[in-house]
Amino acid sequence: MKILITIQGNFVAPRFDMVSEVLIASYDGQQLIGKPRTILISRPSADELCSFITKEEIAIVVCGGIEERHYKYLTWRKMMVFDSIIGPHAEALQMVIENRLVPGTILPGAAGDEAWA
User: Fold this and answer.
1) In whole angstroms, what is the distance from residue 89 CA to residue 117 CA?
2) Which of 12, 16, 58, 88 could link 66 by a cystine bridge, Cβ 3.0 to 4.6 Å?
3) The domain containing residue 65 runs over which residues?
4) For residue 73, what is the domain's CATH number?
5) Predicted confidence (pLDDT) per residue in 40-67, tens digit
6) How many domains does the chain have?
């Protein structure tokens, strides 16, 4: 299965509709397969990002704030969506792998001011 995290620098991007970069990791249910890859998005667009997520056959989406219609579309497409996540994307990925991430999680690494600098 594939995991997609919307990112901004080293952190989960605060807004789904303004994302210019995503991290995609392949996961076999126990561990990552290969190294996660970062993909630059040509222009921020929630609709285009949803289309990209569908084409890539993503199973899990991790993001910050997301509009309800995009959330509903992704869940209708049978994707798990963890929204309102705040903090470093590496911590978010690790929590997905450990099956500990829940929507609204504020990750320990989010404590510093550098998170949104």
Assistant:
1) 15
2) 16
3) 2-116
4) 3.30.420.130
5) 998 899 999 999 999 999 999 999 999 9
6) 1
